[in-house]
Amino acid sequence: MNDTLDPKLRSWVESAHDPATEFPIQNLPFGVFRRAGSDEAPRVGVAIGDQILDLCACLAEGLLEDVREGPAAIACAAPSLNVLMSLGRAHATALRAGVSRVLRAGGAPTRYDRERAERILVPMADAELFLPADVGDYTDFYASVFHATNVGRLFRPDQPLLPNYKWVPIGYHGRASSIVRSGTPVRRPHGQTKRPDDERPTFGPTRQLDYELELGFYIGAGTSLGQRLAIDDAESHLFGVSLVNDWSARDVQSWEYQPLGPFLAKSFATTVSPWVVTLDALEPFRRAAFARPEGDPAPLPHLVSVVDQARGAFDVTLEVWLSTARMRDAGLDPCRVSHGSFADMYWTPAQLVTHHTSNGCNLRPGDLLASGTVSGPEPSSRGCLLELTTRGAEPLSLPGGETRAFLDDGDEVILRGYCEAEGAVRIGLGECRGLVVG
Amino acid sequence: MNDTLDPKLRSWVESAHDPATEFPIQNLPFGVFRRAGSDEAPRVGVAIGDQILDLCACLAEGLLEDVREGPAAIACAAPSLNVLMSLGRAHATALRAGVSRVLRAGGAPTRYDRERAERILVPMADAELFLPADVGDYTDFYASVFHATNVGRLFRPDQPLLPNYKWVPIGYHGRASSIVRSGTPVRRPHGQTKRPDDERPTFGPTRQLDYELELGFYIGAGTSLGQRLAIDDAESHLFGVSLVNDWSARDVQSWEYQPLGPFLAKSFATTVSPWVVTLDALEPFRRAAFARPEGDPAPLPHLVSVVDQARGAFDVTLEVWLSTARMRDAGLDPCRVSHGSFADMYWTPAQLVTHHTSNGCNLRPGDLLASGTVSGPEPSSRGCLLELTTRGAEPLSLPGGETRAFLDDGDEVILRGYCEAEGAVRIGLGECRGLVVG
User: Please, what is the end-to-end C-alpha distance for chain A in angstroms?
Assistant: First the structure.
């Protein structure tokens, strides 16, 4: 295992040892930032404790010697991670290893003075974080069999899980233009809706606004048109992961989605978290692929490998937290409404990528492949309100006495994610926030 | 009417008067080109007869005085039309008007010498044409009720046209990364397929490769997230049109498309033609919106305006031509296999754009909105083989004795389009070509 993951590693950045931090030295996710309120150029940084390591400043200070002359150094000055992503896993791995050395207790900066440390660190509290990547194409999968079954039951009671589900990693193209950074308010969309008993549809604000808890994978090195990836090569094209909230207007969706799939029910906004946790950092949290229940078919041969079956899944715990306007007024903290594990997904990330390129479709650096709603087998692990409230029939009870069937204006949805494993330091994915506005 | 459309206008470029030309002075479509085999920077040009007017060269020669100091001049040096598109209709209209003056008989260049004309013109035969725009998001609609009914009958015999069709301009997100320029060979994709009697799916090359004849609209000025366009403002965000071939693998599509729509059945390639014909040039070919048959509902109010109903459709004749390897070996010309009119679409372009932004989804300059397969009421106007051969049951007869249910390797599909109207000069859209390779 890569020495950046050594649980004994310590950083000279004190907040990296706060028990609550998501960003110990074993994590080191990449993002794009600048000092808030400044007109600085957005540039690449790495999260450490409650600070951001400014990679351009490190280079200017003569740190990161190993990458100084290489393309990764140029990538650090870009306003998105796309250039770094395009270089492929090896470059990002080397850069992350260099960052680990800079941040280690006993490493480079302690040989210098506090002033120097202050030149290369920016407090997160003083930073503005941007979209991590310029997403060319956004693909949304449907990789939780629990989600597909729960939702299918509501939309098609006679046939919840369609015959293709266990063979085809179902996915569709999402809208790239409306991907927004965490913290961007989400305006309740208008749309056409028609209740079963209505004679005709009407147009107006959605009455069934929902979130979807997802994990998103950013493509690193691209593929060329016509190139089909073998499953054991697929992960080398994945850069890392972020949280994704694929906001959905359920009443719009059920009226519009046949026969070509969701369109305006989703395209009004998709929120992503600012930090991209690399596959290197996720290494200690690998798991065997989802164990298909007895009777389920084995995937077709191009979607299977010994290695992927043994360790192609990732145990990332994902949570949804909700805060309403009334809760905030009453001084109540956000409450957790569900939590599940990404290891419960029916398909591994490598299977999703392999499937995506199986027709020769090209992937570009920065493309976003989201998992689809992460739901597990338990009621408490249902990753959207549609499932959690059985389409509003069983509203959720919130602190302070409120209930929710779907989202109200003033509700803030906060996605969180973290990884824990025996013998590894806990790491987190940060937050993905969005406040619903009318 | 704009004086660039005057049928009496003549150009000093002789080939602009060839009766077969698609590019008389009344057309003036924009594209991106460079001299073939050169390392010149791709830049903006305008088609005229069998020549390309090099707009950067015009500016260098002191022509196009009206735009020389403005942003449109900078846009001409860009390697895509996105910058020009982003400026909005008025800038493109002014640039096209300036181009018209440069090219008019008795206009600027005749005051100078032949040498100068040669400096600003590049023969199309010597040029390499690029994708006209860097497409951020590609949306594919389904706007022909004839296509939707014909295809629906094959995929869902019990319910060809779903209840939402006459209310919702059905569309879905396509793949932007695999949009290719005309002339790019299209590799037969692999995919999962399962025939009704098969016990399990198999993975291999598609056996039902098809084309789709479509018209594509490029977005000019963008919209912001949350902005809903009124229908009478929608066209001001459209820059112009190209031909689009939305290649489809029908066996992959029928197995994968439920419940989230087409994905790998389409994402392996979409071919677009190089010239973008502006809405200004299409002005003489406007028609009243499609006359909905008795009994069809009126669209919801936000999708209707007096102006759009009166003149929101465009009478563009669209054709599919096919050439097989054996036909080429035998010296046979491509044969036309279908032809229809874009005026037969159930929704106008303004309705499609209005619908697209009705949930606040933002459009960016260069986004491509394709119409969906253009099919009319006649069997001869069916815009894909799926319809034309009733999913292979009634193969097409070709010159030389061949038949086709779906496309074979070596088949070349050529889309063409043109406009004719009383009192107007005929204009064409050029060609959109793709050769199927195994």
Answer: 49
- Determine whether the interchain pair A261/B256 forms a contact, defined as Cβ–Cβ distance below 8 Å: no
Amino acid type, A161: L
Helix (H, G, I), strand (E, B) or coil at A24: coil
Residue B92 phi, psi (nearest 5): -65, -40
Burial-class residue A192 by CB neighbours within 10 Å (0-12, 13-18, 19+).
buried
Tell me if the bond preceding A259 is cis, omega within 30° of 0.
Answer: yes
Reduced to 3 states, what is the DSSP secondary structure of residue B386? helix
Which regions of chain B carry the CATH code 3.90.850.10? 138-437
CA atoms within 13 A on the CB side of B437: 11
Tell me the pLDDT tens digit for each residue of B296-350. Answer: 999 999 999 999 999 999 999 999 999 999 999 999 999 999 999 999 999 999 9
Stretch A35-47: mean pLDDT, rounded? 97
Report the alpha-carbon distance of residue A239 to residue A92 in Å, rounded: 8
Name the CATH superfamily, with its identifier, for domain B138-437. Fumarylacetoacetase-like, C-terminal domain (3.90.850.10)
Beta carbons of B244 and B370 less than 8 angstroms apart: yes
pTM: 0.97
Give the chain B residue nearest A228 (alpha carbons): B190
Burial of B408 (0-12, 13-18, 19+ CB in 10 A): middle
Stretch A329-342: mean pLDDT:
98
CB-based contact, A300 to chain B, within 8 Å: yes
Give the distance from residue B168's alpha carbon to the nearest chain A alpha carbon, in angstroms: 7
List the strands of the sheet with A30-35, edge to edge.
A121-123, A51-54, A43-48, A30-35, A127-129
pLDDT above 70: percentage of residues in chain B: 98
> Using an 8 Å Cβ cutoff, are B91 and B66 in contact?
no
Distance from CA of B203 to the nearest CA of A (A): 8
β-bridge partners, A297: none
The predicted-structure confidence for A107-157, as pLDDT tens digits, reads as follows: 666 555 567 888 999 999 999 999 999 999 999 999 999 999 999 998 888
Say whether B294 sits in a helix, a strand or coil: coil
A207 among the known binding-site residues? Answer: no
d(CA B423, CA A265): 44
| Residue range(s) in chain B whose domain bears CATH number 2.30.30.230 | 3-129
Q: What is the CATH number of domain B3-129?
A: 2.30.30.230
Task: Give the H/E segment covering residue B59.
Answer: helix B55-60
pLDDT in tens, A347-393: 999 999 999 999 999 999 999 999 999 999 999 999 999 999 999 99
DSSP state of B11: B
User: For residues B353 and B141, is the Cβ–Cβ distance under 8 A?
Assistant: no
Kindly determine whether residue A260 and residue B262, on different chains, have CB atoms separated by under 8 Å: yes
